[in-house]
Design a protein that fits this description.
Aspartate Aminotransferase, domain 1; binds pyridoxal-5'-phosphate
């Protein structure tokens, strides 16, 4: 699993650290990279550096540059993060001004103006009565916070046995133990077991891989997938289930949008069993699908939204959950409080970045831009369907996955060795060489994922599609 940058073999550039070490050498010797196989960076006995770590040094708009001065399209907005694009000096300036005024203060019994302003702004943007904002530093902490809130809420309201959670197969919800228990990716979980008990999985909404009898009816497939949640609640016992965690469009596995009627049915089920619906919008919020909160794109109102990433467009780390008035109610009076928090949660500099980021969204009409241009982006990628490797193109907004298959007619996927050869051995490097940074991922079936900054338009869609075409045509020869 992962983005496979480790396979990008290049001689190191001659950029040095302040201590005089080559950057690539210092990376190899001291940097512990995330979800990354380090073995490929090792010296192979020839005095060289092994494969060199790709080092990105600069960004401007939707473009990034490496330490050799080569330019790439940022086809993944960093990691589904850089919504307004790189190099926005007004965000940097807002952060600098905040650091000068008040660099840090916690939200433990005290508050600071930027967190208050941002909480009010987000409550105004969030649907329904989701009015209470709890800040974290990232998406995993937001998910962790939501599960803990669900458990405590039910303890406070006379249903103390409700503690279990339900999420979907292959979904990624983060790495803290609770969030990892919600994550449905076996290789990400296995090294850390035993995990938190009570986290159950249901099928995701991959229509391309729907059970045979539902393959021609997306609505019936959606109903079937939603009903698996009711079935799991019944099986576990409704008096034990606290919450269901779902992304509006599931990222891991390659962009599974909800079938028509899916969330309507999920909402019904959650209401029927008094189970909280958590919309994990770590990726999907802030225009990635179109609206500020993606539940609005699919017409449902959750009980909690968890999000991070695009809130600051990556200029500083910030995550949050927005909870409904109902969930905050028991915390309003007496000695009750939520015994949970983070030193960096709602950091003033991050909140200042978020406010400046949202100003750009409003001024440049980014959500309208995504809504208007999503069909154009989709059409450009749909144009790749004639290639023999392209099995499916799916997603929404500025968020797409291209599933690669061995046999289009049977939808047969690649085995482990073929995946290694195709994704790690060829695609990651070839895409990068073609000047596009994006993700070749095999956490489910192999997919190429695309989520560029929200500022791109038709010219960039065509550019992305033509670079992909070149690489995929060549990939056919590597099987
Ligand atoms: C849906 C979802 N939830 C949670 C997370 C974890 O977020 P973070 O890496 O900020 O902890 C991610 C990260 O990609 C995500 O996509």
């Amino acid at each position: 699993m992962s983005i496979h940058p480790e396979e990008i073999w290049e001689p190191a550039s001659d950029v040095h650290t302040p201590r005089g070490t080559l950057l690539a050498e210092a990376a190899r010797d001291h940097l512990w990279m995330h979800f990354t196989r380090h073995s490929v960076f090792e010296d192979h006995g020839d005095g060289g550096l092994g494969h060199s770590v790709p080092i990105i040094v600069r960004g401007e708009g939707h473009r990034i540059w490496d330490d050799r001065g080569r330019e790439y399209i940022d086809g993944l907005a960093g990691l589904f993060v850089t919504q307004v694009g790189h190099g926005r000096t007004e965000i940097a300036e807002a952060m600098a001004a905040q650091a000068r005024e008040l660099a840090y203060f916690p939200l433990w019994s005290y508050a600071h103006p930027r967190a208050i302003e941002l909480a009010e702004r987000l409550a105004f943007l969030a649907p329904g009565d989701l009015n209470r904002v709890f800040f974290t530093t990232g998406g995993g902490e937001a998910v962790e916070s939501a599960w803990k809130l669900a458990k405590q809420y039910f303890k406070l309201t006379g249903k103390p046995t409700k503690h279990k959670v339900i999420s979907r197969s292959i979904a990624y919800h983060g790495t803290p133990h609770g969030a990892l228990s919600l994550t449905g990716i076996p290789p990400a979980r296995a090294p850390f077991e035993p995990l938190v008990p009570g986290a159950h999985k249901v099928p995701n909404t991959n229509f391309y891989r729907a059970p045979e009898h539902l393959q021609n009816d997306e609505k019936a497939f959606g109903r079937w997938a939603a009903d698996r949640i009711a079935e799991a609640i019944e099986f576990e016992g409704p008096e034990t289930v606290a919450a269901v965690f779902l992304e509006p469009v599931q990222n891991s596995g390659g962009c599974f949008p909800p079938p028509p009627g899916y969330f309507e049915r999920v909402r019904e089920i959650c209401d029927e069993y008094d189970v909280l619906l958590v919309s994990d919008e770590t990726i999907c919020a802030f225009g990635r699908i179109g609206s500020i909160f993606a539940c609005d794109d699919f017409g449902y109102v959750p009980d909690i939204i968890t999000t991070a990433k695009g809130i600051t467009s990556g200029y500083a780390p910030l995550g949050l959950m927005v909870a409904s008035d109902r969930l905050f109610e028991p915390f309003k009076s007496g000695l009750t409080y939520f015994p949970h928090g983070y030193t960096w949660g709602g950091h003033p500099v991050s909140c200042a970045a978020a406010m400046a980021n949202l100003d750009i969204f409003e001024r440049e009409g980014l959500t309208d831009h995504v809504k208007a241009n999503a069909p154009v982006f989709r059409a450009a990628l749909d144009g790749l369907r004639d290639l023999s490797l392209v099995g499916d193109v799916r997603g929404a907004g500025f968020f797409y996955g291209i599933e690669l298959v061995k046999d289009k007619a049977t939808r047969e996927t690649f085995d482990h060795d073929e995946c290694e050869r195709l994704l790690r051995g060829f695609l990651s490097k070839a895409l990068f060489d073609a000047g596009i940074y994006c993700r070749a991922d095999d956490r489910g079936d192999p997919v190429i994922q695309l989520a560029p900054p929200l500022t791109v338009g038709p010219a960039e869609f065509e550019d992305i599609a033509s670079r992909l075409r070149g690489v995929l045509v060549e990939a056919e020869n590597h099987l």
